[in-house]
Amino acid sequence: MFIFDWLNSQLLKMEWLSNLVKTLVEQGFGLSIQERLGGSIHFFIYDVIKIFILLSVLIFAISYIQSFFPPERTRKILGRFNGITANTLAALLGTVTPFCSCSSIPLFIGFTSAGLPIGVTFSFLISSPLVDLASVLLLASIFNWKIAIAYVVVGLILAVIGGTVISKAKMEEYVEPFVFGNQMADVEVEELTTRARVEFAKSQVKDIVKRVWLYILIGVGIGAAIHNWIPDHIISAVLGQDKWYSVLLATVVGVPMYADIFGTLPIAEALVLKGVGIGTALAFMMAVTALSLPSMILLKKVVKTKLLAVFVGVVTVGILIIGYTFNAFGYLLV
Q1: Quick one: pLDDT band at residue 183, thresholds 50, 70, 90?
Q2: Is 275 left (phi over 0), alpha (psi -120 to 50) or beta?
Q3: Tens digits of per-residue pLDDT, 102-120?
Q4: What is the rounded CA–CA span in Å between residue 117 and residue 175?
Q5: I need a surface site. Which of 1, 84, 87, 207 has the fewest CB within 10 A?
Q6: What's the predicted TM-score (pTM) here?
């Protein structure tokens, strides 16, 4: 147990880095981290470096695993199953694809055009940006393993239920016709060498870091401002656990935004440190990653309004239930 706690604090939470940045701020800049400016600088430098280190390492490892599951192989695996088993498998496969919701949509088109049920592809579409393995470890590094694991479980349940509801609704007619006409060739999957897999993983790290670095900086900057400059009583007045509308407000605020989950984590961290319920913070994260306005605009190009409305409605209700449940029972996870 001692070894696990040490590894968790030093490798995931990177307490050594926090202490190093503290020394830099206090001795290098002559500022106390107990004061607003010093605390903000410490929060920003520490979180940015920690997230980029963890992100690079985790994306490399996950992408290496993902190289064994290219779209063609994933499609064949999913094609062997049906019903809730297929939805569950699609949600699980979504966890090893480190994509944002916009990046997942081309795979959604490919899977649907290849003949997979749309409910199965929607389970994948919900899970992929929401519960990838990298975000789980980052959640553990910011909060704890109980919260991270609980987040994965509820995220997968949401993906399975969302896809199942859409399957039962028989909404294939609300997918744009060109999607079904885009037939994928049934090509043999080429087996990659270890060197090729390493190169693929390195390219994924570069691509994803290039795509999300700005959102991480913005997210950490907002988190630093919330943590050190906005008084607790203001945050509590708007998003306090005693406010029945806090989860609803966090979900509504999150939808128009576009950021990767890595950019929203520092904001969620700062909100929780200010006394906001863990459910409210997670609802905000889920809304940003699963229901962002840009991804909905992209999805509207491949599905009709009724199907899009059902998708948004199911996911929104799921996020609200998850948020209020975590707020009610989150104390068990702290």
Answers
A1: low
A2: left
A3: 556 677 777 777 778 888 8
A4: 11
A5: 1
A6: 0.78
